[in-house]
């Protein structure tokens, strides 16, 4: 096992379980079930029950080609958000790296290794400010592959979970645009549900928001909030970004947070911005335009029960006609 202070809680539990299996073979059956649960994103972290209200800060950062500057910008935003009383802080997709396939290999870090400067900064910032941190995403290098990965930190700076973007963005419109993430990145293994002091969160990255099945699965597993760091472009942003966030919210009667980088005129990729927090009635709780900023919202989790009682969609599903099948449990 690694001796670095930062460990994935699930991974260290897994290593401990393996050690048990070697010395006590009869526990192997239980171990296999445990491994399956871990692989499905179950968390070994047992937090206090979340408070009824959580103040969230969504940081729409100006991402540049200068990695050191991006780290400084993110750190300052986390500190500013905490100073405003936020308990949950969200960063955008690819906040340490320009959003271009050529940049991903250059800016990538080995998150589980000892030399990830982004993880070190994030862990220290979360611990120092006492916030739960959904750290957008960065390019991750692991076993010769690259992933688009979101790290989640506890208020003590522990790396609680890691979501690797499940649905890769591949488009090829002849004569117009080709962008194939899959040429550079590998897809993640599955959904990520993480229990934090700010509630039970389901994580998706950008294109993941277009797949309602993933959101339904998170809702079925008791998530209170869906968090999507993302960087929509200037074509799809205006028509789909807010619509998708509100659609996932209204379908599942759940809070939805989207967090985009700010639009940087000197960048080759022009992000739509418009980071947004949506409530379980699909109401916009906070939003913005494309400039660098931090937006805040108070999420009152008692509204989940209220909305679901007033309109009991879950009880009224016709599971004799269709089914939601979670293949990862
Ligand atoms: C964002 O970063 C670029 C450098 O990439 C800089 O030119 C620009 O002024 C920054 N925007 C703001 C609003 O700070
Ligand atoms: C980036 O994408 C372009 C166009 O799809 C491709 O030609 C290039 O090889 C890609 N670069 C990397 C590093 O994957
Ligand atoms: C944005 O992406 C869409 C596909 O999702 C593509 O059709 C469009 O051309 C892109 N727009 C820009 C400005 O790159």
Automatic annotation (TrEMBL):
**Naturally occurring in which organism (per UniProt):** Volvox africanus
Q: Which family does it belong to?
A: Belongs to the carbon-nitrogen hydrolase superfamily. NIT1/NIT2 family.
Name of the featured protein: CN hydrolase domain-containing protein
Q: Which CDD domains does the record associate with it? A: nit
**GO molecular function ontology, one term from the record:** omega-amidase activity
The UniProt keywords, alphabetically, are: Hydrolase, Signal
Please give one Pfam family short name. Answer: CN_hydrolase
Q: Which domain of life is it from?
A: Eukaryota
One GO BP on record is: asparagine metabolic process
Matching entries from PROSITE patterns are given as: CN_HYDROLASE, UPF0012
């Amino acid at each position: 096992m690694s001796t670095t202070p930062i460990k994935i809680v699930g991974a260290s539990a897994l290593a401990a379980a393996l050690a048990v299996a070697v010395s006590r073979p009869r526990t192997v059956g239980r171990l296999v079930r445990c491994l399956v649960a871990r692989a499905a994103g179950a968390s070994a972290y047992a937090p206090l029950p979340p408070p009824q209200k959580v103040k969230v800060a969504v940081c729409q950062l100006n991402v540049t080609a200068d990695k050191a500057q991006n780290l400084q910008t993110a750190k300052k935003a986390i500190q500013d958000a905490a100073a405003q009383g936020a308990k949950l802080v969200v960063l955008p997709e690819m906040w340490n790296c320009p959003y271009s396939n050529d940049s991903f290999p250059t800016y990538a870090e080995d998150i589980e290794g000892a030399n990830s400067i982004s993880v070190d900064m994030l862990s220290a910032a979360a611990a120092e400010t006492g916030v739960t941190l959904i750290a957008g995403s960065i390019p991750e290098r692991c076993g010769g592959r690259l992933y688009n990965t979101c790290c989640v930190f506890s208020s003590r700076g522990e790396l609680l979970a890691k979501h690797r973007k499940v649905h890769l963005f591949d488009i090829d419109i002849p004569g117009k645009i080709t962008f194939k993430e899959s040429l550079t990145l590998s897809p993640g293994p599955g959904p990520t549900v993480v229990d934090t002091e700010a509630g039970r969160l389901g994580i998706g990255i950008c294109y993941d928001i277009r797949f309602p099945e993933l959101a339904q699965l998170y809702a079925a597993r008791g998530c209170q909030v869906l968090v999507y760091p993302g960087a929509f472009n200037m074509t799809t942003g205006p028509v789909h970004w807010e619509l998708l966030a509100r659609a996932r919210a209204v379908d599942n009667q759940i809070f939805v947070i989207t967090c985009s980088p700010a639009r940087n005129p000197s960048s080759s990729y022009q992000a739509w911005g418009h980071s947004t927090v949506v409530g379980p009635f699909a109401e916009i709780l906070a939003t913005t335009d494309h400039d660098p900023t931090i937006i805040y919202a108070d999420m009152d989790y008692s509204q989940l029960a209220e909305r679901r009682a007033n309109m009991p969609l879950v009880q009224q599903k016709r599971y004799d006609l269709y089914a939601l099948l979670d293949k990862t449990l």
